[in-house]
Input
Amino acid sequence: LSELGQPSYRARQVWEWVYRHGVRDFAAMTNLPKSLRESLAARATFTAVRPAEEARDDESAKWLLELERGGRVEAAKLASEEGYAACLSTQVGCAVGCVFCASGARGLERNLTAGEIVGQLFALGVADVKSIVFMGIGEPFHNYDALLTALRRLSDARGLALSPARMTVSTSGVVPALRRFGDERLRTHLAVSLNATDDQLRARLMPGAARYSLAEIIAACRAYVRASGRRVTFAYVLLAGLNDTDADAHRLVRLLRGLTCHVNLIPYNPVAQADFHTPSRARVRAFGAVLRQAGIETTVRFTKGRGIDAACGQLRLRAS
Output
């Protein structure tokens, strides 16, 4: 708008039309001069993200989204007691390559722009969304600057005004970004995927995250807590017979001792290309009991969206 010789308040007007009122047609922005509306319509579009396919079950929905700049991602809305949680992607593909996760099966194609990240929420529909989790396709901290721009747009008081306290960023543990994120003071929740209690198994399960040791990741998480004053949630996918023993649980207790944190246990959600199994409910309870007895707040993530491949670890580009 500045390039068009417009005063700064015109930018605020357009912003509010887009983010507060959800308007996608310049002609409908009635407090702008007609000549400006026509000029904007000739220069810009609102078609960065378009739904291509949709799948639903009784409580969740998943969309395959086409991106105007090329590529496709998936996003989901998962039911909760308060409304829906929107699960958004940050990349086309993923470089971490977790062997139990479908999202990185094709590797990384490119980062999303901040507009493409935010655009997913508009494509899903914002009216019934009460929280946002950046746990879709991609490693959010591999696309750090676009992620932060998206977080700030979503929480801007002049627009959607979504509380940062209702947003969660999930990472495999990118140490420099973890340390940087604590200094942002965004009040956003942080979830770090561990999934193993020794570096050898973690490198096998999460080959693209093997650059940083568990000791380095935990140290960065401690620095995050000191800088932000917020606790860290550790996600731990339980794989039967591989990382779900009492010995694993006791090693996890030692890793996290003295750290302000919460552990979210995730019984494995099956994906087609991975030969893993979901632990029994008794094994999940026993693992959690070891953590709770050590004073670590622990929950088990109830499966949402498994029937439409929208549960944790199941998002994947299915169309060619």
About this structure: The CA atoms of residues 146 and 275 lie 34 Å apart. The chain has a mean pLDDT of 91. The longest helix spans residues 214-228.
